[in-house]
Design a protein that fits this description.
single chain, binds nickel (II) ion, alpha+beta, binds N-oxalylglycine
């Protein structure tokens, strides 16, 4: 364990009571890294969940005794050879039964991955004054330092800070990305391009698994447009930082939610924290160094007419170590319709979701207090 990941108490004079020295709400808006740095020893009320919703109230475990609850691990090198159809089938099965899987031998250079983790760590180590430059409540900004999930609407806050980087069009957004650490832009751009490439590789195999494309050619029909839209979609990266939490049983790093896009590719450090809902239980995802955790988002659940599942997941925090993750969210372009693929709808498998558009999707997310699966539920046909 690197010493930087271990909680060290802040200096004694900084152990102040936030209620006496600072206006409380403005402290929360500055994020949890800040609360950790000023040395709080109790979780403020703003972060405390009702007893029934706290981490230890629900039953969760890493796996059953027969190991059947372990998240599928898929070796992607097989996509390039004679085993392709087998790998495509394992992707289909993971998307149907778990909504989550881990990928190894994915082809992304180790150096790109370690550089991204390292620069993320260095960004969060910057003095507050430097990080605060990017704080904004404006969700449409190409760069934004934020805290919790939606800090303008959440009635209970979560123990997470994040730097959101919008990744397209790169030539327009890049100059807005942080200039400190000095190498952040270069390393994050390389990482964004590499993860987009990996996303497209996985997406192609997923479309194949739905019977919408073959290895060689795309079927020529009305689904063509949506297929190319899927490939031209937008990308956002969330660099997440979860500081040690003095009372981790009272709050979450992220509350149970589903991701809104097509697929999310998540890189995590060696500190466990991510849990996914599987058959009514919370399953902890064991970090595998150098791998990505991939999950189906709401837009893919709708596009596949419910065959692939956008599964609830959450992050637990702990009292001794900080945790870093980088989530790369890939979604449809902003002008797209979100609807089931025509080819997947028929008499035996009727349409399960009504049409919507990205704007309505995003509006729903921005305008609501925390809801587990707000948008998806609102689009379901009964
Ligand atoms: C997310 C997310 C999980 C993690 O950013 O949407 O679910 O482990 N992150 O940080
Ligand atoms: Ni998520």
């Amino acid at each position: 364990m690197s010493p930087a990941l271990v909680a060290t108490p802040a200096s004694p004079q900084s152990k102040m009571s936030i209620t006496n020295e600072h206006p409380v709400e403005s402290q929360y808006q500055k994020g949890v890294k800040h609360l950790y740095e000023i040395g709080i020893r109790r979780v403020p009320r703003k972060y405390i969940l009702p007893v029934s919703e706290r981490p230890n109230q629900t039953h969760w475990k890493t796996h059953t005794t027969d190991g059947s609850l372990q998240l599928p691990v898929i070796d992607l090198s097989g996509l390039h050879g004679p085993r392709r159809s087998q790998v495509v089938r394992s992707l289909a099965s993971a998307c149907e039964n778990y909504g989550f899987f881990q990928v190894v031998s994915h082809g992304l250079p180790n150096e790109v991955i370690s550089n991204m983790m390292d620069v993320t760590k260095r960004f969060f180590e910057l003095p507050s004054a430097e990080r605060e430059k990017y704080m904004s409540a404006d969700m449409s900004k190409p760069v934004r330092y934020g805290t919790s999930f939606n800090q303008l609407k959440d009635s209970v806050f979560c123990w997470r800070d994040f730097l959101k980087l919008v990744c397209n069009p790169l030539e327009d957004v890049l100059s807005h990305w942080p200039s400190s650490p000095m190498d952040l832009r270069g390393l994050a751009v390389t990482y964004a391009k590499e993860t987009k490439f990996l996303y497209l590789m996985i997406l192609e195999a997923i479309l194949e698994s739905l019977g919408l494309t073959t290895t060689k050619n795309t079927t020529a029909d009305t689904d063509d447009q949506i297929l190319s839209e899927l490939k031209d979609g937008s990308q956002q990266m969330f660099l997440n930082f979860y500081p040690p939490c003095p009372e981790p049983d009272l709050t979450f790093g992220l509350r149970s939610h589903s991701d809104f896009g097509i697929l999310t590719l998540l890189l995590q450090d060696e500190v466990a924290g991510l849990q996914i809902k599987h058959q009514g239980r919370w399953l902890a995802v064991e970090p595998i160094p150098g791998s990505f955790v991939v999950n189906v988002g709401d837009q893919l659940e709708i596009f596949s007419n419910g065959r692939y599942k956008s599964v609830l997941h959450r992050v637990v925090v702990n009292s001794s170590m900080s945790r870093i993750s980088v989530a790369s969210l890939h979604s449809l372009p902003s002008q797209s319709a979100v609807r089931p693929a025509e080819k997947l709808i028929n008499q035996t498998n009727p349409r399960r979701y009504r049409d919507t558009d990205i704007a309505a999707f995003l509006h729903h997310i921005k305008s609501c207090d925390y809801q587990e699966k707000g948008v998806l539920e609102s689009r379901k046909l009964t």
